[in-house]
Amino acid sequence: MKNAPVIRLAKAEDLPELIFLWQKAFGDEEPFIRGFYSLLPGMGFALVAVHENRVVAAAHMITGMDYIDSAGHAHPAAYLYAVSVREDLRGAGIGGILVEAAAKEALRRGAEMITTSPAEESLYPWYAQRIGTVFTLSRTSHSALPGPMLSCDPISAEEYACRREQLLSGRPHLRVSDAVMQLQELLCKCCSGGLYAVPGGLFTASVFGGEKAVLSECIGPDPQQIAASAASLFHVQAAEYCTAGTGSPFLSSTEPIAELTEWNLIFD
Fold first, then answer.
1. Element spanning 251, H or E
2. Rounded to whole angstroms, how far apart are CA atoms 214 and 205?
3. Rounded distance, CA 60 to CA 47, Å?
4. DSSP designation for 262
């Protein structure tokens, strides 16, 4: 590449190129992508790399969130999401320049910590080198077969966020704004799922064919029972969910996060 790309905030007129870039990189359907960009002004920002008057890379920062530590103190956090580079320009260093710029912009806007969920475990060192995400959070995966159903009531993103804070009060967790919770709702509904309340708990669900439901979050006194209820609700073979603690890394951060933090939401 003869000339370095220009890094700038995304503009409304970039949307067609952003949609094209996103679909090539991640394969998502256009309704979800358009929904994401409609929510973005209320929950974060996007940076793009422009080369020869074309958007060739994009990185997104979700900033409508706080890490609530074990003492109950709130730390504004930013989550690096959906980084993509045009296929023919990968390996030219554009991605690294872009994520570094995105992290600096998030810190300038008040974030105290930068987080991300690398798509592959091999990418953790790359992000650590680029943006300093040297601390990791792990979780353990579980699966539940269909079982006796608890009452599962669909609820709005705003109600879910409110109930979530009540359930997680006194525990280290990720607190999200209504707009960020709307993103999780959009993601679930685009996968034939949604946000649900059960007696004493909550769960988010995305459904994949008739085979499985994936619960990005499953909060309550008996997560296994909640997951079994979700499997029955969606008539799938099993429901998958995770619990905080030991297991596989799923999040990296520039600052330490308590091991049993209820983070859960990474919008994958």
1. strand 248-253
2. 6
3. 6
4. B
Are 238 and 212 spatial neighbours (Cβ–Cβ below 8 Å)?
yes
- Is pTM beyond 0.85? Reply is yes
User: What is the predicted pLDDT for the residue at 1?
Assistant: 58
Other CB atoms within a 10 A radius of the CB of residue 209 amount to: 8
Going from the first residue of the chain to its last (268 residues), give the mean pLDDT of each consecutive group of 10, the final group possibly shorter.
Answer: 86 97 96 97 97 96 97 98 94 94 98 95 94 96 97 98 97 97 97 97 94 97 98 97 93 97 94
- Count of beta carbons in the 10 Å neighbourhood of residue 75: 15
Residue 210 class from Cβ within 10 Å (0-12 exposed, 13-18 middle, 19+ buried)? exposed
One-letter-per-residue 3-state SS of 187-240? HHHCCCCEEEEECCEEEEEEEECCCEEEEEEEECCCHHHHHHHHHHHCCCCEEE
Q: How far apart are CA 80 and CA 16, in angstroms?
A: 21
What domains can you pick out in the chain, each with its CATH number? 6-132 (3.40.630.30), 139-244 (3.40.630.30)
* 60 SS3 class: strand
Distance of CA 255 to the CA centre of its chain: 18
